[in-house]
Amino acid sequence: MKNIIRCALFAGALFASEAKAQRSLNVNSGHSHNDYHQNIPLLTAYYAGIGSIEADVFLKDGELYVAHDPSEIKTGVTLKKMYLEPLAGFYRQNGNHAYSDSTKRLQLVVDIKKDYVKVLARLIKDLEVYPEVFNSSKNSRAIRIVISGDVPAPADFKNYPDYISFDGRPYTTYTEDQLKRLAMISDDIKNYTPWNGKGNPTTPDLAKLTAVIEKAHQQHKPFRFWATQDSPNTWIVLERLGADWINTDQPDKLKEFYLHRDKLSYTNPVAYPVYTPEYKVDGLQKPVKNVILLIGDGMGLAQIHAGSIANHGQLNMGKIHNIGFSQTAAADAGNTDSAAGGSAMAIGEKTNNRYIGVGPDQKKRTNLVDTLANYGIKSGIISVGDITDATPAVFYAHQTDRSMSSEIAADLLESKVEILVGSNQKSFLKNKDAELMNKLGSKGFKLSTSAADFLKESKGRQLVLLPDSATRPVKDGRGQLLKESLLHSLNMLSANKPGFFVMAEGAQIDYGGHSNDLPYVVTELHDFDKTVEAALRFADQNGETLVVITADHETGGLTLLDASAEKGMISGAFSTNDHTNIMVPVFAYGPGSGEFRGTYPNNELFHKIIKVMDLKNKRKK
């Protein structure tokens, strides 16, 4: 009983903190179970870089046939033709290594279904043709031969050549010499747990699983479970338990899982503090003077939850009480891009993908910035990406294709925006219209080409064109550009008595989703959330400001697999490198925030903002 309790405590500790001596696995830790059932036996697993390949064999007419059952035996499908000859060819081709990468290992597990005495005799004869390829006792670089299934008694191991290794069992007692002949120890996971691969095994089962692995490790042998579920969550749990081989029928998927693992997990050791709003005017039905619209481009619920877990369970936006959902479909497709998604919010009408500030009929619509300007309300548009890109562009430009960067930049001449901040200097400074900057100057715009210069300005129209390096990813050192730009814009626009509207975009949450890079996504979301904090603090101090936080769409089809808020650790997988049709949340804080509850099309955000600002009762300028 004491041992069971001790194991349970160990298992719990293992799942609560990093295992001190745990080896990080990779695709070469994969065991291709029943490999001969692959559409392309051997080659699928080999080109994936799998380190252990299993073939079941039967002896018939003096040949070793690869099959799971005698009824499956087919002419020509022999161990020699399917595995030994090709592996010998690879070995020689790679300069006497199993793989071209000499650090990768390979073992061929021959699972004998019956009559091991005759099967081993035939196998040994077949292997004698390739002494340098499969004799691991004389050549450490050789491909190891491991016998499983119907194996000799441990006492008889010594009767076979020393290059033959065996697959042991945890319930068998081995002498020191017999242990030397074991390549690994394996067992059926069902002997320890009915776990189906979802979530984690129960605490008592974790204790049993951990104990059997630990026993093998105490004997200095790697361990493998067979009959495991074949999914990323299972692979994660098995590795955490300490298993050395990952059983799989999907070598390619296991390869993808490990190949991109650095982009599918993220740990934030130290959480940043979050702000708890005052809620003094939150939800009150009173006219709104100012609106701060924060758009996390590509930010869906999974991205938000990943950011929360990575910040040890808290986000600034998580403190907001009034929450709704925005349906993001474009007018011409179920999925939206940022152009159609942003335009819906900016013009109050769904439109086609790629369209910037125009309706499905390609005709210009008056956007939110220009609508509010008619009532003396000044606006600022901020992005930590290309300022001519879709999301910021829809608030000041009108074009039929988001790629028309030069034309989008020139549309600023007709816009009533007060402050524009983002990168892509080229589209303005080297515009098709060589006089564009002079014309913008005549419209009152003051050009700044650095954030530092912008922060020195205190009044007037501002065009802040940053070098592309200034909007590099936050993980590469961008700093708090979004938060600082928002705060300075708020400071400048607050002097406008009729009020202001600011749209600030966390552009690169989307970039991380497109590249299926979870650390990129989470670090950008954290940067965005720190900007949310600045907006909430301003709203509390001002008392007449509504903060709305949403996204134009979700990007990447992110699924979360493993998480620990205690560690700030999150891992996941992506289903696409494109946008999805998943609804995105809408968080609202301040007076009028209750208007944003419920589920509605994304173009309703335009009308809800107009409603809470009570434009019907305001006089046009």
Automatic annotation (TrEMBL):
Residues that hold Zn(2+) according to the record: 297, 391, 510, 514, 552-553
UniProt source species: Pedobacter steynii
Name of the protein this chain belongs to: Alkaline phosphatase
GO MF term set: alkaline phosphatase activity; metal ion binding; phosphoric diester hydrolase activity
Required co-factors: Zn(2+); Mg(2+)
Domain of life of the source: Bacteria
Keyword Transmembrane (UniProt): no
GO BP terms: lipid metabolic process
Protein family membership: Belongs to the alkaline phosphatase family.
Active site per UniProt: 338
Pfam families: Alk_phosphatase
SUPFAM superfamilies: Alkaline phosphatase-like (SSF53649), PLC-like phosphodiesterases (SSF51695)
Stretch forming the signal peptide: none
CDD domains assigned: ALP, PI-PLCc_GDPD_SF_unchar3
Amino-acid positions noted as binding Mg(2+) in the UniProt annotation, renumbered to this chain: 297, 389, 505
UniProt KW keywords: Magnesium, Metal-binding, Phosphoprotein, Zinc
Cofactor binding comment, as recorded: Binds 2 Zn(2+) ions. Binds 1 Mg(2+) ion.
